[in-house]
Amino acid sequence: MSDIKIHCNEEKGQKFIKDIEQKQFLFSFVISYTETCEIPGITVAGADADFIKFTPAADAEFLHYGSCKSIDMIPMTPDGKPTPALLTKAALESASIPQVIINAGSKISPKLPYFQTDITPGKNIAIEPGLEQSNVM
């Protein structure tokens, strides 16, 4: 890890690097959906309003397979920028970090193995509470 630069507290930084150097990591990708994202202009996750609901599942599929199954392309912003999942996948692969997908209320379920919670998609917080009280506590 000689390519890591430590700023401020050199001693603490070196200790942190030594502590994590031989650890095993697991990336947990938690996907969900909220109707709040349907408010025009509040998000750029998805090429258009119809694609927003596919973004969490498609990102998970891209991380798992290297391609999407729920839609025919990787998620893009309205102006054509690709999903940050490209960088995430590259980082995970370069560091050999395994991953798990957790569905915590995605509107579209991913087409891959995942852990399922009993959480439903969130509501539009401009209209009503985003989650049921039972899902928060």
Automatic annotation (TrEMBL):
Family annotation (InterPro entries): Nict_dMeBzImd_PRibTrfase_arc, Nict_dMeBzImd_PRibTrfase_sf
GO molecular-function term, one example from the UniProt record: nicotinate-nucleotide-dimethylbenzimidazole phosphoribosyltransferase activity
Listed name of the protein: Uncharacterized protein
Species per Swiss-Prot/TrEMBL record: marine metagenome
